[in-house]
Amino acid sequence: MPRETAAGERRVALVPKVIEKLRSRGVEVVVEAGAGLGALIPDELFTQAGATIGDPWPCDVVAKVNPPTAEEIGKLREGSTLIGFLAPLTSPETVESLAKADVQAFAMEAIPRISRAQSMDALSSQANVAGYKAVLLAAEHSTRFFPMLTTAAGTVKPATALVLGVGVAGLQALATAKRLGARTTGYDVRPEVADQVRSLGAQWLDLGIEAAGEGGYARELTAEERAEQQKRLEEAITGFDVVITTANVPGRTAPTLVTAAAVKGMRPGSVVVDLAGESGGNCELTEPGKVVVKHDVTIASPLNLPATMPEHASELYARNVSALLELMLVDAGAVAPNWEDEVLAKSCVTRGRND
């Protein structure tokens, strides 16, 4: 496991508890010096778990969080295996470089969302972190209380929160906002998630537009559907104190759900937290990576939100990596992927020069 070099990245691909488990399978683990400092894991904890501090790049398997840089790809040994978020849809040049370097690469975001692969679903584990933290950001920037308060000076009504896009991040956001005392409402173009929203004590916002797709994702809406969706959302959004957006279509620009007109119609002091900033944003006035105030409404679009909670985010991600790695391990810790396995076949984005 090498040290992550991306700006602001504090997560690591392996944690001591997972290393202990891999060691029991006969896997020798090498950790680059200082790799865990961002996640508050000193080298001593890695060595206590059985890892060696040294150069990780010549290893048979290299586990990362972020896609490798060109320089890092050059350090990988021919015939080795790389596991990590590789952005195969948005950064195909990375996959091409890995293939030329004769590296077998598995993209964590390409793992199929099937029941058997839930323990390896890094997109979901990190989305849980993002959904939780998004609500805390909304509460921080809000000018109003989340819960109802009854005081000697009178009663304060609870804040109203709308979550647009109720996949894993959205459901976690609804649950967290509910715990903080807000009145919660969820919306998604996939009608089958309405029961999940209601199970969290939230209301379901029905706009009459459905876009169920494959693999647990929503399909891209037609131009007519997008126009109708925006019109109805604009009317609904103005009645909420907090709006959290999580809608993404893999490999595409994020759909616009909160228009400038909707923001303008919101009550002053309201908050929009846009979790789709890395793919353009769901809010028309979003400035990715920044917190801005437009029409007296605060719009926050944090990038790589899971990295702001590196301890638990790393722990969850490391379990995902370990589960995937164990799927391809044979006796004595050797790596031998079974290409008949759907999980391995679909998550592998290059098998080297022969791919």
From TrEMBL:
It is an enzyme of class 7 (translocase). Residues 139-301 form the Alanine dehydrogenase/pyridine nucleotide transhydrogenase NAD(H)-binding domain. SMART domains: AlaDh_PNT_C, AlaDh_PNT_N. Residues 2-130 form the Alanine dehydrogenase/pyridine nucleotide transhydrogenase N-terminal domain. GO terms for molecular function: NADP binding; proton-translocating NAD(P)+ transhydrogenase activity. One of its GO terms (biological process) is NADPH regeneration. One of its GO terms (cellular component) is plasma membrane. Its EC number is 7.1.1.1. Keywords: NAD, NADP, Nucleotide-binding, Translocase. The keyword Glycoprotein does not apply. InterPro entries: AlaDH/PNT_N, AlaDH/PNT_NAD(H)-bd, NAD(P)-bd_dom_sf. Pfam families: AlaDh_PNT_C, AlaDh_PNT_N. It catalyses: NAD(+) + NADPH + H(+)(in) = NADH + NADP(+) + H(+)(out). CDD domains: Rubrum_tdh (cd05304). The transhydrogenation between NADH and NADP is coupled to respiration and ATP hydrolysis and functions as a proton pump across the membrane. NCBIfam families: PRK09424.1 (NF006942). This is NAD(P) transhydrogenase subunit alpha part 1.
